[in-house]
Amino acid sequence: MGDDPDRRKILTCAVGGGLGLVIAVPAARLVLGPTGEQTVTTPTDPLDVGAADRLKVGGPWQKVDVVAPLVKDGWTTARDVVLGAAFVRRTADNQAQALSAVCPHLGCAVGWDGKNFLCPCHDSKFTGDGDAIAGTGPAKRGLDPLPVKIEDGRLRLTWIRYQLDTASRDKA
Length: 172
Ligand code: FES
Prior knowledge:
By secondary structure, this protein is an alpha+beta fold. Helices cover 16% and strands 30% of the residues. A 4-stranded antiparallel sheet has the order 1-3-4-5, with no helix packed on it. Strands 2-10-9 form a 3-stranded antiparallel sheet, with no helix packed on it. The chain has a 3-stranded antiparallel sheet with strand order 6-7-8, with no helix packed on it.
């Protein structure tokens, strides 16, 4: 009774088919994602980058990390992901301003020397307002401005990545 060859074949097919499905479904998801789409969702809403009163009105640029509280892709959710860095300041008329710290040439992190922005990779230099200084390096445009506002005493910045090594400012 337990050695019925037909029954054994059916059982083998059922177990084999089940195992195939167990392997095939995650493999398909690896390529397509659970919804059939490959997506990584980074926030497009303004992100909190700190208290506005840390910046003196009319004071110098300060560097801040831009951290997303949540980044999702098809499979996982990551928290507190550093997206990049920006320079922020408050102008004399109390407007918040922000510049991306990503060099528009090839993406190195620019630094601030108190007067100009400098890129350590290929020596591009930018004015204190972020404009490219001609003849200093290969950057084809100035630093990228980022939308920022003060809301309830907090600086809220919208992170945008632009295409590199172009004169125009097109979103990546
Ligand atoms: S990456 Fe900044 S000048 Fe090349």
